[in-house]
């Protein structure tokens, strides 16, 4: 057999030297799935406008920045826990390595956690915790602190204005563990305040219509006695305000949470007393960073532990007319051009929103 020439051997060796690192790189990517992983982003409902308008787009954008080849499987359960279970099952069947889930029902979501983990997929609880099963990570604002902040802000305002009467408390969904934390925080401010808690209500599915119906009944029952309403989010807060207006009753100070556009406009107009600014970009991008970490095999540590789960909790900001211009500003999550439209323009000008 003819022996290969020295030139041919050298050429072959050079080719192998070039190919070996590429092959190793390819094997590494193939083994970890890091460059082409699928990540599920499962949101709970469309009643809160934030999920479609902010959470999903921001999460997708950050994931694309971190991992151009990763595929985000986005689904919204429209307040149906069984549908969310199906969406999680489908995502795992498609090969999702990480599930980021804001659960419709925190208790029911425990089965999703166990199912995903049995298939070696990581679970990141997003916005709402999953107490009955330990997710791999939890990303949210500090909901108990949030509840205390909106409640204390209202109580302080009522004391400053020497308001008379009691309070209504409109809580979030009884199946949402985050709502339970907000409720606990609200009570920590309201219970020792000296204001009587006239009645409270856990709003099924956070549905504004159900909150409005309940508040309407309380207006009839306690007409002239309601000094303020602690509502757990902007949807239930807006519904509470609508109930007073429909009953031709004076609207008392009403709280909120989420800093939705409509809520900011109600604050500008003087219809809603406060809301909570918790920039969704913060949690959406933090969840994406954590998801990318799991994809690479790196488990994030967080800055707290909640329900036995490593957690990353952020502190929100209370927004009233006094500081709204610090939140609604050029380059902010909401800009004056968005808030100060039509009938709100004059009120915005008085508050210095430009």
Automatic annotation (TrEMBL):
<dbReference type="InterPro" id="IPR025997">
    <property type="entry name" value="SBP_2_dom"/>
</dbReference>
<keyword id="KW-0732">Signal</keyword>
<feature type="signal peptide">
    <location>
        <begin position="1"/>
        <end position="29"/>
    </location>
</feature>
<protein>
    <submittedName>
        <fullName>Substrate-binding domain-containing protein</fullName>
    </submittedName>
</protein>
<feature type="domain" description="Periplasmic binding protein">
    <location>
        <begin position="39"/>
        <end position="299"/>
    </location>
</feature>
<dbReference type="Pfam" id="PF13407">
    <property type="entry name" value="Peripla_BP_4"/>
</dbReference>
<dbReference type="InterPro" id="IPR028082">
    <property type="entry name" value="Peripla_BP_I"/>
</dbReference>
<dbReference type="InterPro" id="IPR050555">
    <property type="entry name" value="Bact_Solute-Bind_Prot2"/>
</dbReference>
């Amino acid at each position: 057999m003819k022996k290969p020439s020295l030139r041919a051997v050298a050429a072959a060796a050079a080719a192998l030297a070039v190919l070996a690192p590429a092959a190793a790189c390819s094997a590494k990517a193939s083994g970890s799935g890091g460059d082409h992983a699928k990540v599920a982003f499962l949101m709970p409902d469309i009643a809160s406008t934030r999920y479609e308008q902010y959470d999903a787009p921001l999460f997708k954008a950050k994931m694309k920045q971190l991992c151009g080849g990763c595929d985000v499987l986005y689904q919204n359960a429209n307040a149906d826990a069984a549908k969310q279970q199906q969406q999680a099952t489908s995502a795992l069947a498609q090969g999702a390595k990480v599930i980021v889930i804001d659960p419709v029902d925190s208790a029911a979501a425990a089965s999703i956690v166990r199912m995903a983990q049995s298939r070696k997929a990581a679970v990141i609880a997003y916005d709402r915790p999953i107490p009955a099963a330990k997710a791999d990570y939890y990303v949210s604002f500090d909901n108990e602190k949030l509840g205390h902040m909106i409640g204390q802000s209202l109580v302080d305002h009522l004391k400053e204005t020497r308001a008379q009467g009691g309070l209504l408390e409109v809580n979030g969904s009884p199946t949402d563990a985050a709502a339970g934390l907000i409720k606990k925080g609200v009570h920590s401010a309201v219970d020792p305040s000296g204001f009587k808690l006239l009645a409270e209500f856990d709003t099924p599915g956070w549905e504004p219509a159900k909150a409005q119906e309940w508040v309407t009944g309380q207006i009839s029952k306690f007409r002239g006695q309601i000094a303020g309403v602690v509502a757990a989010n902007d949807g239930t807060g807006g519904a509470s305000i609508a109930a007073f207006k429909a009953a031709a009753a004076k609207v008392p100070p009403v709280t909120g949470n989420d800093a939705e556009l409509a809520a900011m406009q109600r604050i500008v107009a003087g219809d809603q007393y406060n809301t909570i600014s918790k920039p969704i970009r913060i949690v959406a991008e933090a969840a994406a960073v954590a998801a990318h970490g799991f994809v690479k095999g790196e488990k994030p540590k967080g800055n707290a532990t909640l329900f036995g789960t490593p957690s990353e909790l952020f502190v929100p900001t209370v927004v009233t007319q006094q500081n709204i211009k610090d939140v609604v500003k050029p380059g902010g999550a909401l800009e004056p051009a968005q808030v100060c439209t039509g009938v709100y323009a004059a009120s915005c000008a008085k508050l210095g929103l430009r």
